[in-house]
Structure formats: C-alpha cells, structure tokens
Design goal:
Length: 254
C-alpha cells in the first residue's frame, strides 16, 4: 500500500445469511483528507463503516491501516493504533460536567481511566488540556455545565472533544449531522473542517450539502458495491449516481 493511503480495503465483503450487504469493496482513503461514504438507504454504508472500525467481522477480504493488516483486530486495538470511531469513547456522561467528560477521556489516553480514586489535585493536572479541547470544539463556556443539560449540537461537539482526547490519527464519524438543526449543522461542519487539518476523517453522512462542502473525496455505494468515486463535482455528473439518488438532492448543491 502506498504511503498516501491511510486505509485500504481489498475485496471487502460481508454476507448475512445469504444476503450480501457489502460486496468486493476496494476503498482507499488518502491521508489527511476528508472522505465521505454516501449512498441511498440499503447501500451498505453502515455495514462498510462497521467493518472498517471492527464492529463487524468481514466474510472475506482485507483491511489495512497504515499498511498493517487489521482485518481481525479488535476495536480497542485499532483505537490504540490511532483509528477512533466517534462513539467508541464518546458516550457522554450526563451527570458529569463538560470538563469532567473530557478529563475522563484524557485518563483513558494515559491508561488511568478506572482510577476514580485519584486525588482531585492529580486529576486537575489534566484540566489545561481538557479546556484546550473544549475551546477547540466551541463549548469552553459550558465547561462547568452537566453534559446532560447541553443542547444536542453542543453535546455532539463535546463527543468530538472526548474523541480528540485520544489524539487519533484518523477519525471516523457516523452521521455526525443526524438530528441537528441548521445552526448546529453549520457549527459542526466547521468543527469537522478544523479537526481535519492535521488528521484524516472518514464519515458516513446523509446531508449532501455538508458532504459537498467538506469532502475531498466521495465514495458512492449502491447495493453493497462502489458505484462511483471522486470529488462532488465529478460524481454528480455521473448518470448512475443521479439515478440512484433521484429525489434525494444530488446535484442540487451549488
């Protein structure tokens, strides 16, 4: 695998009792880019995402991360290697403050996540970095608010902050805009753009305006196979993509 690609799948296939959800997918994600995985319902996006992040074992095929075969690795193992899926460690603790949530994530990075008996003074040493991460995602002013009281969009931003606490080389986002209003979508899109400046982002996303604005490369899946791949301007000229998305807004973005 060339150094340019951080993730590569080779003939990746997943069958469920005779139904082929993902079929011979050869995906290459270029380092330090934003790569979107899109497709109509039933296209196999989520299954493909779950295969890459090791939440599902493949029926056959191979997955490489930084040139290493991770086909049979566990999710925790690839997280330690630098590939982190947003919800892997970002379940927000509603009763903890925003700052405390990020601090817990930083403890994981240090390997002390279960040392809740550590002194407040010891834990407070993490506060500087935790505050930096909260500032990076735009929720620093709510540092002392219980996470459960944050708005939906800010809660999602806090989740990204806890993910960034692991200092991932590659961040995988599963429908980051789901359930958001227009203002939160714009804020989160800008956050993803900032986060991607020094790392690779692979995301599954239904909001095609966001995909168009953010993505360097888009892979379109249909019925478990790659239908098209390229920048937004290119794939929207593909008649098969337009047909697959008929009524779903492809090509409507300026």
């Amino acid at each position: 695998m060339g150094d340019d690609f951080i993730v590569e799948t080779r003939n990746l296939t997943k069958e469920f009792k005779g139904f082929v959800a993902v079929s011979d997918v050869n995906l290459k994600v270029r380092r330090n880019t934003i790569h979107a995985l899109i497709g109509p319902n039933g296209a196999g996006k989520t299954t493909c995402f779950n295969l890459i992040t090791k939440f599902l074992p493949p029926s056959r095929g191979q997955i490489l991360f930084n040139g290493r075969d991770i086909t049979h690795a566990k999710p925790a193992a690839i997280a330690r290697q630098g590939m982190v899926r947003s919800f892997q460690i970002s379940a927000v603790f509603g009763h903890l403050t925003a700052l405390e949530n990020v601090r817990v994530a930083l403890q994981r990075k240090l390997g002390t996540s279960f040392q809740f008996w550590k002194s407040d003074r010891s834990l407070s040493e993490l506060d500087g970095r935790a505050l930096e991460l909260l500032e990076a995602v735009g929720v620093a002013q709510w540092r002392d608010n219980p996470a459960g009281e944050l708005s939906y969009g800010r809660k999602r931003a806090l989740e990204i902050a806890t993910t960034l606490a692991l200092d991932p080389e590659m961040l995988l986002l599963d429908e980051p805009m789901a359930g958001m209003g227009t203002e939160d979508v714009a804020r989160t899109a800008e956050l993803i753009r900032r986060v991607a400046k020094d790392r690779t982002v692979l995301m599954v996303e239904h909001n095609l305006s966001v995909v168009a604005d953010l993505s360097d490369t888009i892979t379109v899946l249909k019925l478990g196979k790659i239908l098209a791949e390229g920048p937004y301007s290119e794939i929207t000229k593909n008649p098969e993509v337009v047909e697959a998305y008929m009524g779903h807004g492809v090509g409507s973005h300026a």
